[in-house]
Description:
By secondary structure, the chain is an alpha/beta fold. It has one domain: P-loop containing nucleotide triphosphate hydrolases (Rossmann fold, 3-Layer(aba) Sandwich), CATH 3.40.50.300. Helices cover 33% and strands 21% of the residues. The protein contains five helices and seven strands, in the order E-E-H-E-E-H-E-H-E-H-E-H. The structure holds guanosine-5'-diphosphate. Guanosine-5'-diphosphate (GDP) is lined by residues 30, 32-38, 52-53, 56, 78, 142-143, 145-146, 174-176.
Amino acid sequence: MHIISAEFIKSAQKPAHYPSPDFPEIAFAGRSNVGKSTLINVLVNRKHLVKTSKTPGRTQLINFFLINNALSLVDLPGYGYAKVPKSLRASWGSMVETYLSSRESLKGVVLILDIRRTPGSYEIDFIDWLNQQNIPCIPVLTKKDKLSKNQQIKQQISSSKQLFKLPQDFILFSGKTKAGKETIWTAINALLEKNER
Ligand code: GDP
């Protein structure tokens, strides 16, 4: 993907504050600190378009970015940070669920997991829910540079087994080496071309 422009549009909490759905949209979801901001920045060749936060779980808004005046990328707030109070976790859930279930321009979700972690019940439930909603999912295992090649493949197989309903294998990615970047773009472009939603 040739990136000509990448700009922040706005942050929103409620549908009334979302930008108008003029462009096909891809959302990014993952646990806090998983490397979501890093991944988006690598995809769009920018170092600081999405602010990487030192305090996990602080970004509690939905952030909209416009790429090449043609594609919208959405950074969903990271989930699962233990220090966030339960009440906030509930509001996170409803904010993200409202966005995902109502956004007419949404073409799919890139779900990012740390390659060193076993998928948990949250990821299993989330994928089930995406399937029910008929929202395509691109599963990515990031921080692949943290494991040896053998371990990477082991994790790829076991994570796919854990989340057995996935229609495709996890894409392995590293924000450090940028490996996997083009594969993720290919998967995103395939969703944009499907034009089913
Ligand atoms: P976010 O909270 O999901 O947006 O995570 P960030 O993108 O802010 O990354 C969290 C931490 O993980 C930061 O210290 C990053 O430098 C580091 N990180 C992110 N991606 C990678 C990666 O692919 N490899 C390595 N080694 N570190 C990464």
